[in-house]
Description:
globular, transmembrane
Amino acid sequence: MPPxxxxxxxxxxxxxxxxxxxxxxxxxxxxxxxxIGNRAHHHRLPIAPPQKLRxxxxxxxxxxxxxxLILLLVVVFFFFLIPTVLLPPDRTMSSSSSSSSSASDAAAxxxxxxxxxxxxxxxxxxxxEGQGATVRRSIGRHELRNLDPFLMLDEFSVSKPxxxxxxxxxxxxxxxxxxxxxxxxxDFAGHKGTIRTGDxxxxxxxxxxxxxxxxxxxxxxxxxxxxxNLSSKDKMIEPRYQELQSKDISRADKxxxxxxxxxxxxxxxxxxxxxxxxxxxxxxxxxxxxxxHQPIPEGWNAFVYIIDGEGxxxxxxSAPVGAHHCLVLGPGDGLSVWNKSGAPLRFALxxxxxxxxxxxxxxxxxxxxxxxxxxxxxxxxxxxxxxxxATQWTSSSA
Length: 398
């Protein structure tokens, strides 16, 4: 029988606690308490996970750069590798050409790194000159005063009795190239001669010369006359001549293009003419359907004068240009020309190294200052400093 409970309340509480401890010490209760503890552990409130540290600025920048590089590689792969591999060759070429600019197209179709383009176009209009003569002047007009070292370009057309009677020069050179007919030249030093179709006279006036230029035959006499400046150190040299007959002018022919080389070099052929001011001067004739790629020294000024026919100059997509036009070329290392017409194209290509000196011109005198021009006029008037024979000489054609 169970023991009796003490009557004292405190004694009864102590006895009750001792019994509770004994019960709780039993293996049954121990395992139960453990299960309760585990259950309580599973129902514990969640603890917030520790916050991650924000990456440093350098790490963020590195990640962004890496992502950008990956995107760039993807773009390169899709736009360059896939079209090359998947598309036929002709499809790929047409795609790339359609997206390129006209300047790139021109560069791709010529052998030049910097093909020269036409930067100025000028129609040479007729004007009176000399005595009853008519010229088409391009360089030397107010629209194009000069193109260093070139001072003037005239396409002349003269019939008797018109011409260019006695007149002086100082400080430059004249190059007369006969296109048709003949011209007779004589000067106060006793030099006299006639140049005919295809002939060239390269005259260095230097410190001074007085001469006449008159038609030598019947009908119309045609040609080109170019004035080339002399540097200050050469302006007062003694006059001299270089004359070449048509048969002696260097020639070359390649792929439907013929050239007469008055000065300089073309197609590996060089002219024997000596130029004090470095110059190239060529007469090209292009058959229909032909094209030309002529090197021009970088840094030189250059122009084209169209004698006959029409052609495309500088860029293949440019509009064709016809006869009597002067085309000033921009910087670069060469000129490309296409004859897309059904007739031959003939033009002169001229280039020269700029002198970079002041140009003061008064009629037939070209010097570096107003004082030098005044001196040239005084020398001619009084017959001194190169003009000693001027006051006593008259040409036979006068």
